Amino acid sequence: MRAFSYGSFFQKKQIFILPLLWFLINLLQGFFTELAHDEAYYWMYAKNLDIGYFDHPPMIAAMIKVGYFLFKSELGVRIFTILLSAISIPLLFRLCKTEDFTLLFVLFSATSVFQTYSFIAVPDGLLIFFAILFFLVYRSYLNDDKYSTSFMLGLIVAALLYSKYHSILILFFTLCSNIALLKRKSFYIIVVVAVSLYLPHILWQIQNDYPSYQYHVLNKSQAHYTPLSSLEFLLGQLVLFGPFAGVLLIYAAFKQPTQGDLFMRALKFTFLGILVFFFVSTFNSRAEANWTAVAAVPMLLLSHLYISTRANMRKWAMRIGGFSICLFLIFRVNLMFDFAPVIGSKALPEFYGWKTWAQQIDKQAKGAEVAIMNSYQRASKFSFYAQHDAISLNNTSYRRNQYDLWSIVDSMQGKRVLLILNWNPGNVKADLLTLSTNKGDEYGVFIDNFRSYTKINIATGINWFHFKPSTEVEIPITINSPYPYPVSFDHDTLYPVELCYRLNYFENFHSEHTVVPMTNMTVDGSLKTVLKFTTPAKEGPYYLRIAIRTGWLPSSINSRLMRMDVEN
């Protein structure tokens, strides 16, 4: 490990001035740029602060909660992301083995990951920051096996886990790079501290039927594999770690030898391990390019060392980096002011015009509550810019999300609601409206006595069935209500309630069938009954959901997604 020194006076000025400049640029960006869809969703997290959420741990919500308390605007949502990104730069330099800060800043600024998560308030930005802290303290731990360092590392590991579930890969590959850690007594202090701090979130998962596990593992895409999925992932990595410097950075990180250095070995294992893990996962399901974002941290440190010791490569890196930074600046200014719509509002519509859209919808709702079909993003955007909560009303053509856990839907029961549809339903037993907005016409309908049964859970106790084709089968089910009072289903003749089941063949819709009307049913805590139906004639793997449907509206998501193999 190098003895740390800032070197020349010019170097000292750079280390202060460039991160400050980075902070100020992102401050302007955060103020003048509308929220991305997911940012609005995490703002809703912050409004309903909890120890866990459907698809993410709560760290991003806590950060936004404090930031929005300080500034009631987009900047408030982003302020901590902006601050932590600026702090990351000198921390990264502490981890560098050469004193070339100029090169580090250029490579950092030329990487899409660091540009994007320097102001967009999403869990990836927090994961990157705490990953840097983790490697900083881990390096000290390798050289100084103190209990105090172990305790600090335990705190940071907990912060990683509370930031994003992908952090488990950092911990796993770091351990793989140095199995001898298991022989250290102090290692178990790290484990005890991290697990103790993370236990409240684990208990939350148990109490809520493991929603994150269901979303990330059980309910992932079941599409047939195509080589295009793997190719798309690989191309996405070049864009994520570049775009123009991506090939150079990946190559340099791969080529940098570890030379028996346990810290460098941890960086190499983490960088390659994360990339390989998600590449292999493309053979089973879709892997988003940004899932590897945190791998940019070890990549940057490895490539910086390799490039800084090779004069010709450094020269090209500076040229490519400088060119990339100029393009990023143009793109960022356009993101704020949209002077070139072809790379702005037309290419990235989620950053433009949503404040106007929300206000237009709110005006046409005329005081009614608002529900938006199958879109947690648009429901969150409406809530932020109209400052009036909407819900995402999810059905079996979509997936569950945090709106299925929140109590917002309970406050709308029995009220007049404007439901924004995500399709043109044609002839329905209701007065269909066309709502004019800057985002185009929306289809909507007013429901005077709104009811939603998304919180009713239907359990079978079995998640994988094996049946023969064209066979009458019976599945015992339990209908569970979370409410402390009896729930009846006879509220409205226009929207009668029915028990249904839906089948998908792989990820493609196969059929939906009504089993029995629920008009005369009452659930007081729980109700046991039997689901009877005939299996499809076509053999193959199906996915079954049991659902509740009200009137002509699509059925809600009331059970887990269950595998059903139909075969002789």
List the helices and strands and how they pair.
Elements: H1 9-32, H2 37-47, H3 59-70, H4 74-95, H5 101-109, H6 112-116, H7 123-143, H8 147-163, H9 167-177, H10 185-207, H11 211-218, H12 227-240, H13 246-255, H14 262-281, H15 296-308, H16 311-337, H17 354-365, E1 369-373, H18 376-386, E2 390-393, H19 408-411, E3 417-420, E4 432-435, E5 442-447, E6 457-459, E7 464-467, E8 472-480, E9 487-488, E10 497-505, E11 508-517, E12 522-523, E13 526-534, E14 540-550, E15 562-566
Parallel strand pairs: 1-2, 1-3, 7-15
Antiparallel strand pairs: 3-5, 4-5, 6-8, 8-13, 9-12, 10-11, 10-14, 14-15
- The side-by-side strand order for the widest beta sheet comes to 2-1-3-5-4
- Structural classification: alpha+beta
State the helical fraction. Answer: 40-55%
Termini separation (Å)? 65 Å
Uncertain runs are 1-6
**Estimated share of beta-strand residues:** 15-25%
Count of separate DSSP helical elements:
19
Instruction: Determine Rg (CA atoms, Å).
Output: 26 Å
- Shape category: globular
Number of strands: 15
Domain tally? 3
What report would you give on this structure?
By secondary structure, the chain is α+β, with helices and mostly antiparallel strands. It has three domains: 18-210 and 227-337, no CATH class; 353-447, no CATH class; 457-566, Immunoglobulins (Immunoglobulin-like), CATH 2.60.40. It contains 19 helices and 15 strands. Strands 2-1-3-5-4 form a five-stranded mixed β-sheet, covered by helices on one side. A five-stranded mixed β-sheet has the order 7-15-14-10-11, with no helix packed on it. Strands 6-8-13 form a three-stranded antiparallel β-sheet, with no helix packed on it. Strand 1 (369-373), helix 18 (376-386) and strand 2 form a beta-alpha-beta unit.
